[in-house]
Amino acid sequence: MTGSPSTPTTYAPTPRTTGSRARERMAYDRELVHSILDEGFLCHLAFVRDGAPVVLPTLYARVGERLYVHGSTGSRPLREAGQDSGMPVCVTVTHLDGLVLAKSTFHHSVNYRSVVVHGRAHQVTDHEERLMALDAIVDSAVPGRAEDSRRANAKELAATAVVRVDLEEVSAKSRAGGPSEEPEDLELPYWSGVLPVSPVYGTPIPADDLAPGTPLPDYLTAR
Amino acid sequence: MTGSPSTPTTYAPTPRTTGSRARERMAYDRELVHSILDEGFLCHLAFVRDGAPVVLPTLYARVGERLYVHGSTGSRPLREAGQDSGMPVCVTVTHLDGLVLAKSTFHHSVNYRSVVVHGRAHQVTDHEERLMALDAIVDSAVPGRAEDSRRANAKELAATAVVRVDLEEVSAKSRAGGPSEEPEDLELPYWSGVLPVSPVYGTPIPADDLAPGTPLPDYLTAR
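The joint structure predicted for all components is written out below.
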């Protein structure tokens, strides 16, 4: 869906994606937004309930200009997304890349890349789109896994809510590089720099009930 | 502040911390909540603006029964927390521990530990509490760092907003262990189990302007 002649290379900024400060860290480039979203699979989904905010972690996948999130049909927020107008949501994806240690506590910071999506969550009712989205969510976390597992049956599909949020009002924000310093602080004796941090996968742990000798699939050995 | 005779060992559940499903994964134990909060330093803070939810990543620290978050005094949400009644917020901290691969896509899941705090953000105006909170936020990410850096001066303090959220309406949620399976799926040939994931720190990168020979502090070598 991207790269078509009609798709602009950037998302149009809006008042709520413009930010009140640190605007130099904001970006609207579509490819950058996609790359940040595609690197992750866990988002924080916020909605309003009884006038108060709620934010919950959940899995997602990006397919073209849509984010998909799934859950139980018994889940309150996903039920509310079933209304025609959709449910106002904000979806944020954050990758932490490092801790930035400056000479002063004030200039301590983190290196990160994040995307914030403002929009409405809509129930996905089309059967094919639901199947595609569920595969995409599994593959978002473990690429190649969806086709190497049993797909949802009718009963499971009936118990699963799939919602989508269109990527229209979107911004990326990031920080990279070493600490900012006040010039007069440079002589201070404290160490300064960046402590990198990244998620690392461990050795896969077979399930207790896995038949002995079941080979580890390539998509897990490569991580 | 914890462990005093008047502090119950659990947070009292409320309608919005009870959850609509998967209640077996919910917990209100104070020590568990504290341990999840203390393991992290990056939260997702949600608030409502013009009727719509907003969720942003930010640093935090727990001190006793309070969470502290800081930011620029120019930041809109932190300014709004300056109102007497505070600003309704939800703060969520999530640790991802593993990807759970079941035989069926339906039973795919993640292992995680999360805490959700519902409450109101209040500006911290007391000078000593502000200083303590700023140190705590630095030490939350890098224990021992606050005292090994230049503390904020008057100008920097004036530019920094510190807000607190009291830990009153709080729940923890977690999943651990291997996949759940439908009995009839156990014969399927797919690998099943858990792919562990955790944040890992890399080799510290000195700042370009750091004086050669500045020793790496113990609190960084130990990570």
